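haha ok so turns out i had the wrong file open the whole time. this is the CORRECT one, sorry everyone. sequence first:
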Amino acid sequence: MPQQISPRALAERLAGGQPVHLVDVRSPEEHQFARLPDSQLIPLPELMGRCGEVEPAEGVPVVVYCHHGVRSMTGAALLERAGLTGVFSLAGGIDAWSLHVDPAVPRY
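then structure:
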């Protein structure tokens, strides 16, 4: 089972200038409506065939996110099975990010 990172822990990491490779596994429509800055969109149904596109710099963790944190757990597990290390799922997804970190991110 993949590790999770809380929205606040991710926010602290980003605020501290620590690099993170963000992967959004939601649909393009969801991504267009609300997203984290500089995130890579790879919808979950496409992720298995596109794992090779996730290329974080060495030592940089990958944080997978979705709406509520369910699809991101699956996405993180797929990336781990593909051989990536340092992969996390954003607990509660972008909805929790909006609630606990940045209310300017729209909820849906």
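The first strand starts at residue 3 and ends at 5.
again sry for the mixup
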